[in-house]
Design brief:
This protein has 237 residues and is mainly α. It contains eleven helices and no strands. Keywords: DNA-binding, Sigma factor, Transcription, Transcription regulation.
Length: 237
C-alpha cells in the first residue's frame, strides 16, 4: 500500500522545491506523512487513500519547511504563512520577476486571491527576496533590539494543533459509531437536518418520505437522542 503511493509523495514534494531545500529531504518528510496516513486510514469512511494521504503528506512537508526557514522570513501569523506557501506560485503564474518589488496590480491580485492585505503581500515579497536572519540578530546595527522581539505569534503551538486534530478525528469516529446504531431512515433524516451546512427543511423531507412534517421532526429528535446517548456511553468517565 505504501509503495504504490510513493510516486504521489514525490509529485507533491516536487511542488515545494522552490523553497531551497533538497528534494530528497522533502520526499523523506513526505514519506513520514504517508506513513501517518496509512496508519490512520479507515476505508469504511468512504475516502480513497490517495485523497486522505495527500493532506498528511503536504502537512509533513510544510511543517519541515516551516522548521527549516527562519521565522523572520516566514512570519508567524496565519496570513503570513499562507503567503509564504503561495506567493512564489502566484508570482510564477503572473510571470513576475523573482527579485525586486511587485507591480501595484500584481500586489492587488495576490492580496485579493489570498484574502490578505496589500501591505502583507509587499512585506512577504521583500522577506523572501532578502537574506535570512538569525532571530537573535539586531534589527539595527546600533540598536539593542533583536528580530525575536518583533515576533509575537498568536498561533497555537504544534502540540496544541496536533492535539485538536486528534480530538476531532476521535469525535468523528464516535459520531460514526453512534450513527451506525440508527436505521437507514433515521440516519438520513438526522444527517439532512443537523449535519449539513444548509439543513433540508421539514417540508422537503416530508414530501420525500411521504409522511407529515411532525413525523419527520419526531424521527429527527429520536435519532439525535440515540446518537447523544451512544456518544455519552463511549466517553471516558
Amino acid at each position: 500500500m505504501i509503495t504504490s503511493h510513493l510516486r504521489l509523495v514525490a509529485k507533491i514534494a516536487m511542488s515545494y522545491r522552490g523553497y531551497g531545500l533538497p528534494v530528497n529531504e522533502l520526499i523523506s518528510e513526505g514519506n513520514v506523512g504517508l506513513l501517518q496516513s496509512v496508519k490512520r486510514f479507515d476505508p469504511d469512511k468512504g475516502f480513497r487513500l490517495a485523497t486522505y494521504a495527500m493532506w498528511w503528506i503536504r502537512a509533513a512537508i510544510q511543517e519541515y519547511i516551516l522548521h527549516s526557514w527562519s521565522l523572520v522570513k516566514m512570519g508567524t501569523t496565519a496570513a503570513q504563512k499562507k503567503l509564504f506557501f503561495n506567493l512564489r506560485k502566484l508570482k510564477s503564474q503572473m510571470q513576475a520577476i523573482d527579485e525586486g518589488d511587485l507591480q501595484p496590480e500584481q500586489v492587488e491580485f495576490i492580496a485579493t486571491k489570498l484574502s490578505v492585505t496589500e501591505d502583507e503581500v509587499i512585506m512577504m515579497n521583500r522577506r523572501l527576496a532578502g537574506p535570512d536572519h538569525s532571530l537573535n540578530a539586531p534589527v539595527r546595527v546600533e540598536g539593542d533590539g533583536e528580530w525575536l522581539d518583533w515576533l509575537e505569534s498568536n498561533e497555537e503551538d504544534q502540540e496544541t494543533t496536533y492535539g485538536k486534530r486528534e480530538e476531532f478525528l476521535q469525535r468523528m469516529d464516535m459520531l460514526k459509531s453512534a450513527m451506525s446504531h440508527l436505521n437507514e431512515r433515521e440516519r438520513d433524516i438526522l444527517t439532512q437536518r443537523r449535519l449539513l451546512e444548509s439543513p433540508v427543511t421539514l417540508e422537503n423531507l416530508s414530501v420525500a418520505y411521504g409522511i407529515s412534517r411532525e413525523r419527520i421532526r419526531q424521527i429527527e429528535v429520536r435519532a439525535f437522542e440515540k446518537v447523544r446517548k451512544s456518544i455519552h456511553t463511549d466517553l471516558p468517565h
